[in-house]
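User: structure tokens for this one?
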Amino acid sequence: MKYTIDTISHQSQESTLATNKVLRNTYSLLSMTLMFSALTAGASMALNLPHPGIILTLVGYFGLLFLTAKYRDSGLGLAFVFALTGFMGYTLGPILNAYMGLANGAQIVTTAMAGTGAIFLGLSGYALTSRKDFSFMGGFLVTGILVAFLAGLGAWVFEVPGLSLAVSAMFILLMSGLILYETSNIIHGGETNYIMATVSLYVSIFNLFTSLLHLLGFMSGDE
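Assistant:
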């Protein structure tokens, strides 16, 4: 009996150490990718580069996402993570330039950044301290993100501002849920690959920020 208890205790300690390692690596890589993305966004803004358009953006995003997932267990996976986040930073540059050109654009961008940071830190902190299992949200999030993505494409194709605003509001809720889900997934051992965990959290932060930008721009009356 004592051997069994000791074995279980040892396995539990190993599991906890592995989880802590994934969590530590995830947040370290997330910090680096956010800084790299900010640098590429700043370069894109300074050079006044044009936005590549929705088609090239989607091709670049899904292509790099596929390569990241394919090589997630090798060094190439890290390279593709930075390629993906750098590319997304580049696409963000022209969007930020457009907002900065508005009368209160700097305030909108700053508020969106502060709101994104507060939401991410608050939800991550809650998931880490409460240690609640949010795995039940998985199916809802996949369905919701797919519906919101298709609705966003519809709003772009048919130029429906009201639908576009609704999609932004949906993405704020969905990305908040994804932050809770992914953080919980790491804590409870559901996600053991820190590269994919980083991508998931980065995408949540990126979409949360751009959605807040859109809503704040509309509420300010500048869109």
